[in-house]
Amino acid sequence: MEVKLAKSAGFCFGVKRAMEKVHEQIENERGKKIYTYGPIIHNEEVVKELAGKGVEVINSMEELHSKEKGILIIRSHGVAKEVSEKMKEAGFTIVDATCPFVKRIHNTVEKESTEGKRIVIVGNPGHPEVEGIKGWCGKDVVIVETIEEAEHFSESVDKKLCIVSQTTFNYNKFKDIVEIFEKKGYDINVVNTICNATQERQTEAKEIASIADAMIVIGGTHSSNSKKLYEICKEECENTHFIQTLDDLYLELPKSVRLVGITAGASTPNNIIEEVQNYVRLNF
Question: How many CB atoms lie within 10 A of CB 59?
């Protein structure tokens, strides 16, 4: 039996950069309180490991004001402009680990909002990246996640729109949503802000799943991009499993299975990927 691991599996550029910034603070600022605003990445194992090194997670601005002053790291997802300003006012030393690709979206929507355009964010409204992007827009902003929401969208055709996307959104779904807006006849500026690493990861996952007898997707339970990988793989390969660590893997494979594919989300550490890969190779 062959085990095929996606080349793009694991930490993306933005996550690597954020993790490096956290470890720099741990190494260089010994004795100081270190916090991340929200989990640094959507992986519970990583968050537990960092907690063991003294890194504490703050989940709200209310919670922030009750903490001892120290170093506050903005995670790769970024935060709203107002949140960023309040963090500075609160007296913390700010380390901004916002992914540069996310920061680009902040700059785009701020500029387009200033020019009077209505901003359409294609993404998950509950995701911290999307909440952060929304916070760089003016008041005229809407979040669209589904085909149905795009179809029900209504605005004067005289109003100019700017459409951006959550960096980890499903690329094909984004194209379908944009097409609906185009058919409605709006004057739109479409900025494809889906990260290249996301597109590459989704394309590779789809290719492997299409030829695999079984597929394993490794990712955090709150990881948006990992869930999307699972959806893409499940469409191609019914026998697709979503796990966070090897402990979650309950795999029974008939002898007829010839190929097992493995991919992982952008917030999955290499050691977990290797552990799963080695287990499958040795036990099936």
Answer: 11
